[in-house]
Every structure is written in structure tokens, then in C-alpha cells.
Design goal:
The complex is a heterodimer of chains A (212) and B (227). With 212 residues, chain A is an all-alpha fold. Chain A contains ten helices and no strands. Classes of the chains: A mainly alpha (212), B alpha/beta (227).
Chain lengths: 212, 227
């Protein structure tokens, strides 16, 4: 029989890795996704970004993680740690989805917003950074929160290359005691609490969407 | 710009969208200091004409000569929703503050910011909307948005102001207010104003000259006019 408190503590030791993966990957996904969505509006960038996004969305994240973790040393000479490989993989993968979210957000903005910037002679850099992207960010916030929640759950894949995250810790505990139900329930509870926190933060930011 | 000197000349301007001939060899000459109305039915090419003058649309043939800076007021205002009224006015001049204030000999950034904000507040006072300086566009009425859009265009110090359907969606009283505001702007600063509207009564109130243009989509823009 598993001691519940010890079980909570043991599985909880994986929260750090899960949060590190989530934070790092979301930042990469957000920034790269933004760059992808802007690059997609250029003649040169459109086919390149569309190709990258298509491949990233069309192949399993586990496969992408394996490629980055197991082949990076032989292909580039850089040996990535489990954490780095996870952050890079999940970040790039998330960027594909975030870029789609941003793309729909940009396309839903009235063309007049771009034209207003043009008539007011606002430089391109400021047009994007101060006029377009803040509106796109706030308009797409619910989808971005969804993406973050999906990303959180996706980080469990890191266990396949040996990362001791929440899921992997729960599996290790279960294997040790030949009992699966309690460790997996503990892991599920951790994920659920984290998702609730993300949603709460999202709601707080979303309140600012109403400009009154 | 000397009053009555030519400020805008369109020579044989044509524009098509696919099969549709929207502007067909339009010739217009506008003299400085006038308020000119362009009237016509929906789809007749009024907005396209203004957009071509502003450079938002390319022309297929002909020539547009502008002798001064143009400002543009959109039919649906296109205020920036995440910025306050004051910020809507000051944002563009602030990001290009060097170009904006250097003509006045102001080189210090903070001084430029103060100058631009004071100028914006003064403009808001002139247009009776200064009490909404810290409000967001979503909380404004149609008429108030129109005044903010007008103020924002004027912040760019245009010589020619292009107004696309400035009374669209406004009631008669507010339309009359817009007419008197445009007259005031014209009188106070001598800005040439070109207004596209389907509302002939409004144009009669505000314009020195009315140019009819096009009938819906048949490409028969008469538009041979000198004002």
C-alpha cells in the first residue's frame, strides 16, 4: 500500500520539470509563433513558414522529441539535455499552433487598422508591435490559454526520453509498488490544479480585453 | 499654400476591380482652401476615388498630383480600440516625433511629448471632446468617435483632408454638427477638404462645390470638374 503523503511528495517532485518545460516551451512557442505569423504575410516567408507549420502539425510530437534528443549530437555536435530537448521540441511544436492562432487573429482584424497606420505614417515596426499584435493577443487570449493547457499535458511525453516529470514520477512510483490507481490519481490531480491556475490567470488577463 | 492655387489634380484616373470599371477617366482639379463634395450612389467609386488619392489603392492609369500632405478620415473611424482617445491622437506623432517636431525646432524627446500632448488636448477642446480624453473608443457615441477621428487626422497637419462618408450612421443633428465642425476646421486652418458622401443634403450644408461621380458599377464616372 502506498503512503498517500509520500506518494504526493514523490509525484510532486516532477512538477518542477513539468513547469520548466511548460514555461520554456510556451515562451518559445509564443515568440516563434508571432514571428511565423508575421513572416507568413511576406511573399518569401509564406511558403517556408507554411511548410514548417505543416510538418510540425503533421508529425507526432514524440517523434519530433526523439529526433531532437537522439540525433542532435550526431547532426549538430550539440548534446542536448532532457530539459533542453523538451523545451526546444515542445516550443517549436507549439509555435506551429500559436502561429495559426495569431494568423486567424490578424485576419480577423479590420483591414482598416493597417490602413489607419499607413495614413498616419506609423512605421511598420510600431504598427505591428504597438497596434496590431496587442489587439491580436487580447482577441486570441482564450485560444492561447487553450494552447497552454494542451502544452502542459503534452509535456508528459518527455517521460519517453527519461524526463522525470509528473507522469513519469507517478509511473515510477506505481512500478515500485505494483499499484497504479493512487499514483495516477495523484498525477491527475497535479495536472488538474495546474490547469485551473492557468485558466484563472487567463481569466484575469482577459478582463482587460474590455477597454472601457 | 496660397488660397485658390491648385492643391490636387486628377488627370484621366481610371481604376477597375476585376471586370468592374469603378473609375473611368476621372479629371478633377481642386483649389486650396475649398470644401469639395463628391456625391454618388453606393458602389459608384466615391470611396475608391479618395482611397486612390490617399494611396491606399493603386490606379490603373492616369495621374494624381498632390501639392501637400493628405489626411484621411475613415468611414468606420478605425480608431485604435486598445488606446485612449488622447493616445489615439498622440501615438502617431510620438512615434515619429523627430520628424514631427523638428520642424518646430524641438529636439528634446520629453519636450516633444509635452508639446504633442498639449496640441492634442487643444484640438480635443476645439472639437468639444476634451472631456473624453482618457476614455476608450468603445465607450464613445458615433458622433464622438467621428470627432476623435477628425482630431486624429488633423494631428497629422494635413493640407488636404479626405473624408469618407463622414455622416454614415449618424443622425441628422449629429450630421449637422459634423458639417459645422468641418466648416470650422476649414475656416480656422484653411485646410482643403474633400468629402465623399451619398448624402447630398449634408454636402450642400458643407461644400462649396459638389462633384457627381459614377452610377453604381457602370464605370461612367463623369468627374470632369474644376473647383
Amino acid at each position: 500500500m502506498i503512503d498517500l503523503l509520500k506518494g504526493i511528495k514523490y509525484v510532486g517532485s516532477g512538477v518542477t520539470l513539468t513547469l520548466e518545460l511548460l514555461t520554456g516551451a510556451f515562451i518559445i512557442g509564443f515568440v516563434l509563433g508571432g514571428i511565423f505569423s508575421i513572416a507568413r504575410r511576406t511573399r518569401v516567408g509564406r511558403p517556408i513558414v507554411s511548410g514548417i507549420v505543416s510538418v510540425l502539425r503533421g508529425t507526432p510530437v514524440l517523434l519530433q522529441l526523439s529526433v531532437i534528443f537522439f540525433t542532435s549530437a550526431s547532426l549538430t555536435g550539440i548534446k542536448l539535455s532532457i530539459l533542453s530537448a523538451g523545451i526546444v521540441t515542445f516550443g517549436i511544436n507549439s509555435a506551429a499552433y500559436v502561429s495559426e492562432i495569431f494568423r486567424s487573429g490578424i485576419e480577423s482584424l479590420p483591414r482598416g487598422q493597417f490602413e489607419a497606420c499607413q495614413t498616419l505614417e506609423i512605421p511598420r515596426y510600431h504598427t505591428w508591435l504597438r497596434i496590431i499584435l496587442p489587439q491580436v493577443f487580447l482577441n486570441t487570449l482564450p485560444s492561447l490559454i487553450n494552447e497552454m493547457v494542451a502544452l502542459l499535458k503534452e509535456t508528459a511525453v518527455v517521460g519517453m526520453i527519461g524526463g522525470m516529470d509528473i507522469t513519469r514520477s507517478a509511473q515510477a512510483l506505481a512500478a515500485e509498488h505494483y499499484e497504479y490507481f493512487i499514483p495516477l490519481c495523484i498525477a491527475g490531480s497535479y495536472y488538474y490544479v495546474l490547469v485551473m491556475i492557468i485558466e484563472w490567470i487567463g481569466r484575469k488577463i482577459e478582463k482587460k480585453r474590455v477597454y472601457t | 499654400m496660397k488660397k485658390n492655387a491648385c492643391i490636387l489634380r486628377l488627370t484621366d484616373v481610371s481604376k477597375t476591380f476585376g471586370e468592374m470599371n469603378v473609375l473611368n477617366s476621372v479629371n478633377i482639379e481642386i483649389k486650396a482652401g475649398n470644401i469639395v463634395g463628391v456625391v454618388g450612389p453606393s458602389g459608384g467609386g466615391k470611396s475608391t476615388l479618395l482611397r486612390c488619392i490617399q494611396g491606399l489603392e493603386s490606379i490603373d492609369s492616369g495621374k494624381i498630383e498632390k501639392y501637400g500632405r493628405t489626411g484621411f478620415m475613415f468611414q468606420d473611424f478605425q480608431l485604435f480600440p486598445h488606446m485612449t482617445v488622447l493616445r489615439n491622437l498622440t501615438f502617431a506623432p510620438l512615434v515619429r516625433s523627430i520628424a514631427y517636431t523638428s520642424e518646430l525646432g524641438i529636439t528634446d524627446k520629453r519636450e516633444a511629448k509635452n508639446y504633442i500632448e498639449n496640441e492634442a488636448m487643444q484640438l480635443l477642446r476645439t472639437l468639444w471632446i476634451d472631456h473624453k480624453a482618457s476614455a476608450y473608443p468603445s465607450s464613445l457615441s458615433g458622433g464622438q468617435k467621428q470627432r476623435v477621428a477628425l482630431a486624429r487626422s488633423l494631428m497629422m497637419k494635413p493640407n488636404i483632408l479626405l473624408c469618407d462618408e463622414p455622416t454614415s450612421g449618424l443622425d441628422q443633428t449629429t450630421s449637422a454638427e459634423v458639417a459645422s465642425l468641418l466648416n470650422k476646421v476649414n475656416t480656422d486652418s484653411g485646410i482643403t477638404i474633400l468629402i465623399a458622401s451619398h448624402d447630398r443634403e449634408f454636402l450642400k450644408l458643407v461644400s462649396n462645390t459638389i462633384i457627381p461621380i459614377g452610377t453604381a458599377g457602370d464605370g461612367t464616372s463623369p468627374g470632369h470638374s474644376t473647383t
